């Protein structure tokens, strides 16, 4: 999904987005059990750091309570009641909750590293707390700046199926809703400078209902065809309306369908939590083996099935490469292929770390990316 993709979303918020809440409540058999687990997840991230720092700063109980209660409850309120706020005061309250969601793991790690020197008496609690807050503030500012504008990353490949060089771009996990139309404009300004035959959007382009034309208008500036496959966040929101809005902007939405673009057959598969989705959907698509086969699928699952079907290149996103440390470490445990280029037989998979951000507009230990692919005929040099 997605801050580790959905990993930060589920771990930091206790899974309190509507789809996760429903799925977990059913799986556990009761809402009470779910809420207990959600609160337990909140304690290390949103209670312990605040209580410990307030203790080190010798704040009074009522001062501690005034700080603890809103910060501890922020994610529950934001995910249940503010997740659709996109204007006015409620929007900024949600943004504040999102920022705290990103800051809290940085604060927790810094605090854990500081506990030993404080316990050993090497540093007094109050200076330790002030230094820790200063360090967390600097890391936060860097993380925000790092998430501001994605880099262009080039991926070079060869294929015996091509007569001429194929160039195209990929953006993924842009998360309009968490991010604004201005961010999309910055992304498209970079995309439009690239020499490309088409643009691919591999899901989680929108993560809020009601995202309308003006917020997506930057797509109109793209001089080449745009192909889109769904991500998990589109499924969580107003999927049919999202598809309609994108189609009105000229985007070709491939929902377990294929399209021809020059020498390329482009296949897009709908996102699913089921690991067998790629195998199931590819079995229903007429794959033209004489063409270069490009598969768009949001999650980095199904490389084996893609290789068996004769896919040449599969491109995915979803993981955000953790987005904020330490979630990159967790993501690597959940997704065997979490970032970069992989190969199975004649099939390549490229996993993008994502272009935008979910929740907090922060990246630490990861970098937003616009991926630019150049696939040359075998034996052709880059300057040919």
Automatic annotation (TrEMBL):
The chain crosses the membrane at residues 34-51, 63-82, 103-123, 129-148. The keyword Nucleotidyltransferase does not apply. Keywords: Membrane, Transmembrane, Transmembrane helix. Residues 166-321 form the Calcineurin-like phosphoesterase domain. InterPro entries: Calcineurin-like_PHP, Metallo-depent_PP-like, Metallophosphoesterase_sf. Signal peptide: none annotated. This is Calcineurin-like phosphoesterase domain-containing protein. It comes from Candidatus Marimicrobium litorale.
